[in-house]
Amino acid sequence: QTKPLASVLKDVCDAWSLPNAERYALQYVDGRQTYITESNRGEIKNGSILRLTTSPDQEAERLYSGIQSNNLDVKTDSLKKLASLSQDVTFAQEFINRNGLKQIFYIVEEGNDTGEMLAHTLKAFMELMEHDFVSWEILSAAFIKKIVSYVNMNAVDASVQQLSLSILENMVPTSRLLFELVKKEVTLDRLLTHLQVANAQLQLKAMALLIALLLAATDAERRDMMDYLREKNIRQFIHKNIIHSSEPLGDEMAHYLYVLQSVSLNLCERRMRTSMDPYSQEQRELLQSLRQTAFESESEAPASNFSTERRRSLCAKEFRKLGFTNNSNPAEDLRRAPPGLLALDNMVYFSRHTPNAYSRFVLENSSREDKHECPFARSSIQLTLILCEILHVGEPCSETAQAFYPMFFGQDHFFEELFCICIQLVNKTWKEMRATQEDFDKVLQVVREQITRTLSLKPTSLELFKTRVNALNYSEILKLRQTERLHQEETLAVPVLELRERLKPELLELIRQQRLLRLCEGTLFRKISSRRRQDKLWYCRLSPNHKVLHYGDVEEGVHSPPIESLPEKIPVADMKMLLVGKECPHMKEKSSGKQNKDVLELAFSIVYDMEEYCLNFIAPARYEFCLWTDGLNVLLGKEMTSERTQTDLDALLSMELKLRLLDLENISIPDTPPPIPKPPSNLNFCYDFHHAEQ
């Protein structure tokens, strides 16, 4: 490692009597077969096997000529080799410097091939662009048209269509011009056609492009696109062809469904953030329709016969029965935003689509004592706010989350229908709690708990949600709270606290062992670039002797690769420190404005080799983040600091204490130990050696 790379190459070439050492380079035999350069030579580990091969510039020159050959076999082989070598940054730089991209554009623009050769060409183009040496905006209109045509054609190889969709997905976020071009040329109908195919990879790429278009669109464009997709029943497509397909749902597709759900729900944001305008005729009519639906059959005489004063007092009385706090001017209740007009929309939807349930709710409560009635309007406003918080309405999409609700795609008007179920739940819980007006916040807190606990079970349809949430009544919630409280509460007697402290070191050692075992099992991590969510995966695991971290790229679908298949290594002895969150180099590179908070919470890095290099991670979930940061801290000889350590320690302590205190059930433990009795008067059986010696 002390010699310049050129000297090392010369020595090797001389040993094998090879002239022109500058035409050769060293390359890893395993893994991604990266070329060794002065900038990456420090990453070579002891035991890495290198091979002597043609230098990247020679290889780039040879392939540049090869892809221009008139012999089809030579051309296809050259493009295949190019697609594989372009993953290497050194080769990619050499090839691009020779104006190789121009040649690739020529092959695509002028060629009529739609088979294997084109697939290799597009793969090579994707890999070359991945290095960010050139901007996506350099693409010619002819090239883009050709790529679009492969997406729009029917008789094209599936791999070509997948690559074409990927290329367009990468183009969309880079500039407004490219977004408009792709949006115009690739219709939503065409993308919906791709979503209906049996090929899961093609479905995934089509969904990726659809999501890229939605995220790059302005609010107005996004609204129009979502309206069109709704007309075309995208929800049914997804429910039938993706969520309920025979193939299991991959992480990436789960993420796209989460984004689609998030974008759909965020269409409610505008209404949620808009206060009611008391001078708007349309909004006033909606408000009046609530009163009329509930009470029109009650008033025998038509209201028009009454004087203005009488009519006003009647309306005020009815609005009070509806549960508005400001009954003379109910619009005031809807001035708070959020939930703004969204609460009014929900109430109107409930009154129009389930008129019987609506009338029953209002009339049942207006016949109760004043203090025991459940106020419909006030509950609706608060419930709408709770649902917005639970479903993250108005929040930006996370870059990594995959938590979508299958029932969201099983129902039109999901938000409104969910509201209809939950507002009836409010009334049911109110009665079960025998609540009064003072208990309003308490009831809504229980309802929030009922909804979140049921949603965490991931019901597949709203019907199932309704059944489960209604089964989770107030007494069930009380039982669950009681159980959880018992788990959390420990006897606080001093001897028990002392016992806790004594048990801690042993249990912490147990947690350390578990963390290291989890590191030995390994975890699948996803690579995320600054430009887009990548579908590249890598795996990292600790060797059984806890001496070396092994890692390397893996294919989708590989869950637990053997340790031998992971080419890269970091000796634990070389690890210097662990960085988390904003301190990580891969988080500093990203602009803080766009950087999502949840990605920051999952990021960590290992600094190794004299603090020169970093291995960067983004954990798939908070649980894995805690396990890995704890495990790495154990390897570095430091304290485990994650919140998971505390949770696990509390659970183990709780269990251990319960086992140890089983025999003391119903026996009160004194706070102070019993006094030690005085020594007896005949305590003279001590043998004195000194006297014996004398």
From TrEMBL:
It comes from the Eukaryota. GO terms for molecular function: SH3 domain binding. Residues 282-455 form the ELMO domain. Signal peptide: none annotated. It holds the Pfam family ELMO_ARM. InterPro entries: ARM-like (IPR011989), ARM-type_fold (IPR016024), ELMO_ARM (IPR024574), ELMO_dom (IPR006816), ELMO_domain-containing (IPR050868), PH-like_dom_sf (IPR011993), PH_domain (IPR001849). Keywords: Apoptosis, Phagocytosis, SH3-binding. Gene3D superfamilies: 6.10.250.810, Leucine-rich Repeat Variant, Pleckstrin-homology domain (PH domain)/Phosphotyrosine-binding domain (PTB). One of its GO terms (biological process) is phagocytosis. PANTHER family: ENGULFMENT AND CELL MOTILITY (PTHR12771), ENGULFMENT AND CELL MOTILITY PROTEIN 3 (PTHR12771:SF16). Involved in cytoskeletal rearrangements required for phagocytosis of apoptotic cells and cell motility. Acts in association with DOCK1 and CRK. Was initially proposed to be required in complex with DOCK1 to activate Rac Rho small GTPases. May enhance the guanine nucleotide exchange factor (GEF) activity of DOCK1. This is ELMO3 protein.
